[in-house]
Amino acid sequence: MGMTKKNYTRNGTILGRLAYTMAINQTTGCHEWTGATAKGYGRFTYKTKFCLAHRASYEVHKGPIPEKMLVCHHCDNPKCINPDHLFIGTARDNARDALTKGRLKGNPPPPPRGEKSKSAKLTDDLVRQIRQGGVGAHWARELGVSEECIRKCRRRQTWAHLD
After folding, report:
1. C-alpha–C-alpha distance, residues 118 and 116, integer Å
2. Measuring CA to CA, how many Å separate 146 from each of 3, 69, 139, 149?
3. pTM (predicted TM-score)
4. CA distances from 143 to 71, 110, 138, 149 (A)
5. What domains are defined for the chain?
6. In this predicted model, what pLDDT tens digit does every residue of 7-39 receive, in sequence order?
């Protein structure tokens, strides 16, 4: 595009502001924001409005962002404003992208449920049998669990993931 810092001033157009406040990472091809950040994303004020740099870059180069849509990064670099690295997606698309790329560090997988749990005393098949009937006290004695455990299975307060 031929943008250089000397061609633009800080207070000119949004395109000029983006060009002035970024550096190209030769290894990744990312145009990395070098100005202020918020939660890792480039940010700036333009004509008294707060702007996120990657969203501004998308709008300048590709057009308007549809309502309730996000501007996501193929490169997984929140400072990147390279329009070739940006795409539009929903919150679900962004979460799926993060999950497939192993970026959900703060969200461990859910704990094992049912018979896959280390502390399980029942199996999926036993719970299904318990729900079909029989005396709760009998089941409890036979399986070595409390009557409360049997009641909760029947009420689907536990083992709720089973049909």
Report:
1. 6
2. 73, 50, 9, 5
3. 0.58
4. 54, 27, 9, 10
5. 5-100 (3.90.75), 114-154 (no CATH)
6. 444 557 888 888 888 999 999 999 999 999 999
